[in-house]
Amino acid sequence: MNYSILHQVLPKMVYANLAPTFFIFLMVLLIGNVSALAGESERPNVLFLMADDHRADVMGVAGDSFAITPNLNRLAADGVRFTHFASQSPVCVPSRATIMTGMYDLTHNVQAFHQMNVNTTYLAEVFAGAGYTTGYAGKWHLNGTPLFSPREETYVPPEKRRGFQEWDGYDGSADHDNPVTFIETQDPPVMIEVEGYDWSPTYYTDVFLDFAERHASDDEPWMYFISYAMPHRPEEAPENFLSMFPPEDFDLFAMAPELQGNITAQEEQLFRNILQVYYAQVSFIDSEIGSVLDGLDEMGLSEDTLVIYFSDHGQLLGSHFFEVRDMGSALGGDDVFFRAKSLPYAAAFRAPMIMNWPGVIPTGIEVDALMSMVDLPTTVLDLADLAPPKNMQGRSMREWCIGGVGPNADGLYLTLSVTDELDWEAVWTGNYIFSSTDDYQILYDHVNDPQELVNLYEEPTYAAVREELQLLVDSLAAAATTIPESSSGGGSCLIANVAHGTPLVRELPALRSFRDDWLLNNAVGSTISNLYYQLSPHTVHWISARDDARSSARGILWLALALGRFWALIPVFVAVAIWFRMVRP
Ligand SMILES: [Ca+2]
């Protein structure tokens, strides 16, 4: 063999093959990328549509022949509706904190008008971390803005948005007919009235549609959360929706039989007017949902988008009216008695839950398995094929959504610990609602008495049922108040509980020791609480930027502060001051 010929030929062969080899290499890369893109595109866009105080049964699809909700009916007919969905704690702030953290009320302990400062992994952070573009529009109500604050003070700074990247939200309650937004390019941000919109819901629908349009051809999916502030007070709705519901048409005493013969003509008129506004607001939100769905259709996004419609909780609308009125100031002024929530009654804790994702969620499924707000983040993350973080305590109801058989529960643990007058825990089994706390000894049979007119708590024949339900409450509470395993959440949950210092109907085990101690509900407790909030903008800022070890060290400091005696406070305050000087950016 002539090696010199081979020596000359071999490089030529290599060069000759170089181009096709490079071509094949490019093709392999391309195919790899295409399949990776195809894999990514299987993850849906996720759209949360949350109403405010929409109770479960005021929808055509839920059997209310008076409600006009064609778009919600369509959404349900094309997807899955959970008929036994409950807010874990039926008032705005704790319920919203549960959506964002996937944690029980007693674990995150973000009560009414608290700031959500739990150091944990939030829902939108999971989506953002997985490459989703995230956005939020509307009412937030998790930044601790006091009730009736001027709207200028409802600005939510970026570090408090918990994973939401694009933002057109505000804290606190809404002026439905006066939409505002904040110009963030100015420092400090300036609030302006939105031009061209008469109503906030319409504005937030368009904010979302603009977002969807801008991101329609992105490679990565998006997650968006519209938080409509209706059918909440104030008593405002567009005229064309009000005119659909003449006040005199409502069968008031069928809705709230207790009222018959027990209220004045003036009160009756007030209630009829409130019902008119409530139903008009529901229909208004329904029409906004219609605009959202039509917009998704027009952009060709419907097939790729998981849509979730729900409400933070319901509203009593006359149910248990006299009890509510007796509670008086605990719930607000006279005008809110008819629109109350916060209580362990079905009208307050039950809410709509509809999910729709063409091609994945089959059409027209109704699921009567018990589902709690705690289960919502876990379920949605599972549908989007994302692992829930360890702090999330709920179950995934994914199997139910895709037409299979998913988990059920013997009961759902419901609780609230807003004030001394408003702290309770209850269990809802679907058949019964039961509570045996200081202020609420109730047992209602929802099968035979869905309007909760006959309290069976004292009935001797129900002793065994009561006993069984109390055992269920205890076991569910034990699970609900177990601090979730988390890289950084646990210590901070304790801190949130300590700092808020609210009466806890059932303390976290680690806090039990000072439940009866001097710390909570006294001057020292509120001083600590105030100090915590003075410092919290900084703490939140640096926690998010630093590692878990420092966060845990801070947790230990705060716990020491909380558990210490008075003499121990002074060195701890000094240590905290030094600590913040050292670590603040
Ligand atoms: Ca609400």
State the gist of this model.
The protein is α/β, with parallel strands linked by helices and 585 residues long.
Number of strand segments = 16
Structural class: alpha/beta
Which band does the percent of strand residues land in? Answer: 5-15%
What ligands does this structure carry?
Answer: calcium ion
The helicity comes to: 40-55%
Q: Walk across the major sheet and give the strand order.
A: 5-4-8-1-9-10-2-11
What's the SSE blueprint?
Layout: H1 3-41, E1 45-51, H2 70-77, E2 80-82, E3 85-86, H3 92-101, H4 105-108, H5 123-129, E4 133-139, E5 166-170, E6 180-183, E7 190-193, H6 200-214, E8 222-227, H7 239-242, H8 252-255, H9 265-298, E9 305-311, H10 321-327, H11 346-349, E10 353-356, E11 365-367, E12 371-372, H12 375-383, H13 398-401, E13 412-417, E14 423-428, E15 432-436, E16 441-445, H14 463-480, H15 489-500, H16 523-545, H17 548-563, H18 566-583
Helix pairs in contact: 6-9, 15-17, 17-18
The structure holds calcium ion (CA).
Calcium ion binds near residues 53, 92, 232, 312 and 313.
Task: Please explain how this structure is put together.
- This protein has helices at 3-41, 70-77, 92-101, 105-108, 123-129, 200-214, 239-242, 252-255, 265-298, 321-327, 346-349, 375-383, 398-401, 463-480, 489-500, 523-545, 548-563, 566-583; strands at residues 45-51, 80-82, 85-86, 133-139, 166-170, 180-183, 190-193, 222-227, 305-311, 353-356, 365-367, 371-372, 412-417, 423-428, 432-436, 441-445.
- The chain has 585 residues and is an alpha/beta fold.
- It has an eight-stranded mixed beta sheet, sandwiched between helices.
- Helix 17 (548-563) runs antiparallel to helix 18.
- The relative contact order is 0.13.
- Mean pLDDT is 82; it is low at 21-41, 486-504 and 508-555.
